[in-house]
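Input.
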Amino acid sequence: MSDELCTTGRVAPGFEAVREAFTADPRGGSALAVIAHGEVVVNLREGFADAGRTVPWGEDTLVNVYSAGKPVIAYAVLLLAERGALGLDEPVARYWPEFRAGASVRQVLAHTSGLPAFPVPRDAGAWIDWDLLCADLARAEPEWPPGTVAAEHALTYGHLLGELVRRVDGRPPARFVAEEIAAPGGLDFGFGLGPADVARCAELEYETPDWPQRMLGAPGSLHARAVSNPAGARDLAVVNGSGWRSASVPAVNLHATAMSLARFYAGLMDAPIGASMASPQFAGVDRFLDQDVVWGLGVQLEPDSSWGMGGLGGNAAWADPVRGQAIGYVTRRLGDFAAVERIESALADS
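Output.
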């Protein structure tokens, strides 16, 4: 059975070009959801959930979307701020006394705290030890004065913000997200999955065998340091295992459906927190990404007024307020963003 024959779903009239963009290069397992002005106009999936191509992709197949999940933990912090439980311009240390870096909550949200990498070398087993990694971050010295330099907090973002959630609210970040974001919104995503949800996860695979090395960056570079420690975040043996899926790594291991991401952004476009997330905080070169960016609070802002976040390997979710659209795209084949770019172009013409 070919991947193309496994493409299922529906598109509303006027969005046929989006279906063509989605099916142009089947990924062996991916899904796309688009909500326009509150209505689902695209709901497509193709391929299989497993590397052996025996389990067809389902409506409830979950994908590790990497950094596309960062806005969810950012939203958790902003929700606490909205409730008056913390202040964005307060130092993190007010809520987390052991935290030595002089960064504010806002600076962590905007990737300008100066803590883009975990400071202590750890093996893959550290991912299941929340307290250990948070203690490492609490003792870390920022690489630059907080607020002066942007460098995406590739792996540290979720522990920095997640520990703030835990210190302020008392609940672990995975439970907070489940109870305060996912359940109220009917959103099928989460961190720290239980056995039933682990069983729904798609198996990730590389587009080419050399993909991890090509994406690593120059040896010793900030990019390489930031994504390599603790080990395992790009190792298929780790990320396809139940240990990773049941761990809470809010920077990079949100497991989600495409529809849940689209619904997340659809809700944000109508909420005050969405406006806060889309407020510019930093414009310039991001030293981790090595390119010009505009950071909001947990999302990247684009010149066309859309905002959202891409995830390693080609996952992406974003809001397009000009067109009233919210989009979620997930893929289990880690490669480039060519499919997302085709979909964006087709949406612009729809």
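The longest helix spans residues 70-82.
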